[in-house]
Write a structure and sequence with these properties.
Order of helices and strands: HHH
Strand content: under 5%
Number of helices: 3
Shape: flat
Radius of gyration: 15 Å
Helix content: over 70%
Number of strands: 0
Largest sheet: none
Distance between the termini: 41 Å
Mean pLDDT: 91
Keywords: Membrane, Transmembrane, Transmembrane helix
Number of domains: 1
Low-confidence stretches: none
Oligomer: single chain
Structural class: mainly alpha
Length: about 100
């Protein structure tokens, strides 16, 4: 797959992830995202996809590539969890 197509695919995947809470908001009041929630999540996913693409393009050794991608994903999930429910009780936690 050419590099630009992979990046576009990852961006579409990120947009699809953002569509999940948007669709859920139409059916239940339990999901109540504001415009700022979508903006933060969109920027966060764009940065994640962009960093993943840089790793995929620049790192040639597969074991280092996979290690960096796992570290990136783990860091992403920790920050996402902190923003959502405040697992570390920082001032910018969501709860």
């Amino acid at each position: 797959m050419p590099k630009n197509k992979r990046y576009i695919f990852l961006l579409i995947l990120a947009a699809a992830l953002l569509a999940i809470p948007f669709i859920a908001m139409q059916f239940t009041p339990e999901v109540a995202w504001t415009a700022s929630d979508f903006l933060i999540a969109g920027v966060f996913l764009f940065v994640l996809v962009s960093l993943a693409e840089v790793i995929l393009r620049k790192v040639t050794l597969k074991k280092y590539r996979y290690l960096l991608l796992v570290i990136l994903l783990f860091t992403f999930l920790l920050i996402w969890l902190e923003l959502a429910v405040g697992i570390f009780n920082t001032p910018f936690a969501g709860s």
